[in-house]
Amino acid sequence: MSGTSLDGVDAVLLDAAAAPRVLASLHHPFDEPLRRELLALNAPGDNEIDRCARLGNELARRYAAAVGELLRSSGRQAAEIRAIGCHGQTVRHRPDRGYTLQIGNAALLAELAGIAVVADFRARDIAAGGQGAPLAPAFHATLFRHRSENRAVVNLGGIANVTRLPIEGTVLGFDCGPGNCLLDLWAAKHLGKRYDDNGEWAAGGTLLPALLGRLREEPFFAAPPPKSTGRDLFNQAWLAARLRNEEPRAVQATLLELTARCVADACKGAARVIACGGGTQNVALMRRIAALLEGVPVESSAAHGLDPSLVEAAAFAWLAERSLNSAPGNLAEVTGARGPRVLGAIYPK
Ligand SMILES: Nc1ncnc2c1ncn2[C@@H]1O[C@H](COP(=O)(O)OP(=O)(O)O)[C@@H](O)[C@H]1O
Ligand SMILES: [Mg+2]
Predict the structure, then answer these.
(1) Which listed residue, 94, 197, 341, 345, has the most CB atoms within 10 A of its CB?
(2) Is residue 316 part of a domain?
(3) Is 312 a pocket residue for ligand 1 (Cβ < 6 Å)?
(4) Residues contacting 219, CB < 8 A, separation 6+
């Protein structure tokens, strides 16, 4: 898995039995040149086809290296692994135009790893009229649904998505807005760091109500689900168009409040919130979400048996298993697709 944050590759070895279990994991950060090229490809530019193809090859090599190291560290052989579930790197997400694009050459990955690969999970859902996202809700339901407690799961990645797990009835889920992506780009610009460590810079800033108001006018926030988004919307240009020369630290505090409010609004009514993704490391953000939810426990997924940084990667391993078993991976009520669909393309060993 490599997500919108462009922070790197998360790899897990998953036992995808009835109660999925992570057996081993690792994180390989992206180096700065790769990160910059990926970020650039998220916006229109020159010679995109060639850049996309070459970066797809480079990603396949990075993914293969992560798989190789995971096997070595866990003492496993490639032959013991049924498949690699490879999300790829999103460079465009435009369900409104009927497409989404995750790059990472799956054929090359299968060749390098000597393991079957399941990739391109989102396209089929979009072909069936859905958003192609979020796809983690079925996995969240498998892991975290509770018989007698109405729960919400929030993934604080570059974009934040929320899964609603009612005691009975339909599971809901949607992207609620930016997670870390705006916080990260503002921290990069003003601190020269990839992220605001623990949210400490934001925590010392003054909230700017007028700016928050302008940010929250974005129609995406008020739109009903199904909905999904990405860097196509929440990017440097989106933020710049709403700024009026405010003090940088106060902007960071306000961006944190924006993420916290989007998440809290999406979790209203839940008796417990389970959080995953790198944003769970942002102490100030987690505190603010909990404060807005007044008394509702907001916990890391670690308290429920899975490290928060591994949930998304585990979800795509689990989805790969579903694909290989010809079982649907999407929840049509979540994505808006015409029905359940078997997701992904299989590249045999
Ligand atoms: N110590 C930390 N303090 C604040 N934010 C953090 C910290 N560690 C990780 N993060 C955030 O988590 C992000 C990575 O989260 P991740 O779940 O991998 O997102 P994605 O799925 O979009 O790649 C980083 O870009 C950063 O914003
Ligand atoms: Mg990541």
Answers:
(1) 341
(2) no
(3) yes
(4) none
